[in-house]
Design goal:
Elements lengths: L4 H22 L5 E5 L2 E4 H17 L4 E4 L8 H4 L4 E8 L1 H5 L6 E8 L2 E9 L4 E6 L3 E6 L5 E2 L13 E5 L1 H14 L3 E4 L4 H9 L5 E4 L6 H13 L3 E3 L13 E2 L4 E2 L3 E4 L1 H18 L4
Parallel strand pairs: 3-4, 10-11, 10-12
Antiparallel strand pairs: 1-2, 4-5, 5-6, 6-7, 7-8, 8-9, 12-16, 13-16, 14-15
Helix pairs in contact: 1-2, 5-8, 6-7
Length: 286
Amino acid sequence: MQLTPHQIQCIHSLIRDCGQMALKMAAEPFQVYEKGVADYVTTVDRALDAKLASGLMSLFPGDRIITEENAQSWQVFSQQSGPFWLIDPLDGTDDFIQRKQHYAVMVGLLEQHQPIAGWVGAPAFDRLYYGGKDWGLFEVVGDRAAVPLVPKEPAPPTIDDCLILLGYKDQRRFGEAIQQQIPAAKFDNIGSFGLKVLRVIGGEAGIYLYLNRRVKLWDTTGPLAMAKAAGLVCCDLAGNPLRFTPDAVKLDTLAHRQTIVVGWQSYVEPLLEPLQKAIAQVGLVD
């Protein structure tokens, strides 16, 4: 898909407006609901979800819009061929609820069941990151002009230093087993899937693991389009390419059936086998 400069600017303005809206609403009382086990949604999520969906529908009236907070929109994924715009109004809702800064407003574009473009807005830092296949990567600070975002490969892991991005739940379940296999492993985490992927792109970590298989298409499409544009390896724990076809996700939730590994080749190649052994010791949960 070829986006015009006007469309790109409109997407930027829409995401920035939603980010500023999130900041304003965060400073006021908002309601929190539990929509699943340890899965929360706020009135802020719902307001941003509606605003993003309306904005993208106006820009791309012939395309399919799938949003996290509109379960009816999920049905088109198995019925249509796309392209699909995937909306995550607040990636890292738990961090947002706890008044932390690492949440994001995200949009991803899936075409022919491949992630080809993504936008990750970080309202607390007034930054927007975007890019994708055959496009490159860019960063916007405030309302300034976009500048190239240059991927930075970190130094390879050593016997003394191996930083792994791993979510809180995965750390509790798998952290000890991973450290048994990789004694130098040190874990770090922030709330947003998208911002974690950007940390790998920027060289602040060499690899990011998501193992509990609850992550959804709106979490992954944009960030993984950017990861691929950066030259990162995007695979599952067995080393298979990540898939975005209807048979590769749970259609009732649009959650990936695969585990997710995102990293630089210099990390994925030496760490994949010990990670496989560590996870096998504990076992994955369906």
